Amino acid sequence: MNLTNQTILITGGTSGIGYHLAVRLHENNNKVIICGRRKDRLSEISSAHPGIDTYVCDMEDADQRVMLAEWAINTHPSLNVLVNNAGILHYVDLTKPVDQQQLTAEVTTNLIAPIHLSGLMIAHLQKQENPAIMNVTSGLAFTPIANMPVYCATKAGMHAFTMSLRHQLKNTSIKVFEIIPPAVKTNLGKSDGNDDTGHDAMDVKEFVEQVLLVAEQDQYQKGIGIAEGLVAQRDALFDVINH
Ligand SMILES: NC(=O)c1ccc[n+]([C@@H]2O[C@H](COP(=O)([O-])OP(=O)(O)OC[C@H]3O[C@@H](n4cnc5c(N)ncnc54)[C@H](OP(=O)(O)O)[C@@H]3O)[C@@H](O)[C@H]2O)c1
C-alpha cells in the first residue's frame, strides 16, 4: 500500500495512536482527515498542522456516523483510506451489576461504530484508486485481560469482523488491514483512573512507524511488538487442537 498522496480518514485522531498516525501521514504528503468528540482539541491540531482537516463526530451516535461519512465523501471525493481507530477502554468488575450506559458506550464505540462506518464507505472506496480499510484491534482480541472484559470482547469482535470483511471484499480492490497493537503509551483507559499500560508499553511514535511499515508491505493482519506473540501462540494452539 502506497502511503503518499492518499486521502485518509482516521477516526479518533485527537490523541494517542490516531493523532500520531495523522501527523506522520500528513508529513508524508497525504491528505489527512481526523475526527473526534473534542472540538477544541481538533481546532488545536488543525492550527498546529495546517492541512489536516477535522470533523467533530461522536462515533457512538449513528446519525453522526452517517453525517461524517457524507461530509467526508462530499468534501474529499478522493478519500480512499479509512482507518477505524477510535476506541475506549473501561475496567469492569463483573462481580457487580454492569453499568448499562458504560457497556453500551464501549460496545458501540469499539465495535458497532467501525462496522457501521465501514459499510457507509465501501461503495465510495470501491470507486477509488488504492482503496483500503485499516482496523485497529488489539493483542487483547487474542488473549483477554480479565479486568477489561468488555473491551477485550469488542476487540475480539473486531478481529472476527475484519476477517469477514477481508473475505467479502477479496474480489474488490479494497485492501483490508488489521493492525494488532501491544500496550502503547497513550491515554487509553485513563478515564477510569487506572494506568495499567505499564513501563514496557511501546512508545506511540515507534508504534506508528511499525504501522507504516506493515501497511507499506501489505501485511494484512499484523501483531506489533508483544502482540505478535499473542497472535502466534493462539494460532499455534488452534493448530494443535484441530490437527
Ligand atoms: N494504547 C494501547 O495500549 C492500545 C492497545 C491496543 C489497541 N489500542 C487501540 O488503539 C486505538 C486508539 O487508542 P489510543 O491508545 O490511541 O487511545 P486514546 O489516546 O485514548 O485515543 C482514543 C481516540 O479515540 C477517540 N474517541 C473515543 N471515543 C470516541 C467517540 N465516541 N467518538 C469519536 N472519537 C472517539 C478519542 O477522541 P475524543 O476523545 O476527542 O473523542 C481519541 O482520539 C483504540 O481503538 C484502542 O483500542 C490501543
What can you tell me about this protein's structure?
The protein has one domain: Rossmann fold. It has helices at 16-27, 39-48, 62-75, 100-125, 149-168, 204-216, 226-242, and strands at residues 7-11, 31-36, 53-56, 81-84, 132-136, 175-180, 221-223. The protein has 243 residues and is of the alpha/beta class. Helix 3 packs parallel to helix 4. It is built from seven helices and seven strands. Strand 6, helix 6 and strand 7 (221-223) form a beta-alpha-beta unit. Bound molecules: NADP nicotinamide-adenine-dinucleotide phosphate. NADP nicotinamide-adenine-dinucleotide phosphate binds at residues 11-18, 36-38, 41, 57-60, 85-88, 109, 136, 138, 181, 183-184, 186-188, 197.
Can you list the ligands bound to this structure?
A: NADP nicotinamide-adenine-dinucleotide phosphate
CATH superfamily: NAD(P)-binding Rossmann-like Domain
- The helix content, as a percent range, equals 40-55%
CATH topology name, in short, is Rossmann fold
Tell me the structural class.
alpha/beta
Question: Roughly what fraction of the amino acids lie in strands?
Answer: 5-15%
Main sheet: strands, sense, barrel: 7 strands, parallel
> Mean of the pLDDT scores?
95
